[in-house]
Every structure is written in structure tokens, then in C-alpha cells.
Amino acid sequence: MTDDEIDEEVPELPPEDSITAMLEGLDTLEGIGAPGEAPPPAPALNHREIDNLVNEILDDELNRLSGRKG
């Protein structure tokens, strides 16, 4: 293998769904802060925000599954 082959940049594939996009976004958090330091805590969600988030995820999954069966 030559140096030219190694230096070629591999194009990134587009994320298949919102979960893949979220996981890839988490990869970008590496290297932030001091070594061994935990990332800063996210602000706590209230009950209404949690309920809305769960409902949104459930709706997305139901739509995805019903589209696959149809």
C-alpha cells in the first residue's frame, strides 16, 4: 500500500436514521475537557419534557414499524 492510498479520505455515509445521527454526534464529544474528566452534566429534564421526548420517540418507532409492514 502506498502513502497516496493511505492519505485518501474515505467519504462519510449519510446517517440512516435519527439514532445513528445521534450516536455519531456523541463521537464528536471525545477529546473535550481534560483527560479522564467526565463530560459536563446535561441539565435535568422536567416531567413534561421527558413525557414529550418519550412520546416523540414512540411515535417515530410506530411510524417506522407500520411503514415496514405496509
Task: Give the key terms.
3 helices; flat; 54% helix; mainly alpha; 70 residues
Description:
By secondary structure, this protein is mainly α. It has helices spanning 3-7, 18-27, 47-69.
Parts with pLDDT < 50 across at least 5 consecutive residues: none
Question: Which band does the percent of strand residues land in?
Answer: under 5%
Written as H for each helix and E for each strand, in order along the chain, the element string is HHH
Average residue pLDDT = 74
**Structural shape:** flat
Number of separate strands: 0
Please bin the fraction of helical residues. 40-55%
Which structural class should the secondary elements be placed in? mainly alpha
> What is the C-alpha radius of gyration, as a whole number of Å?
19 Å
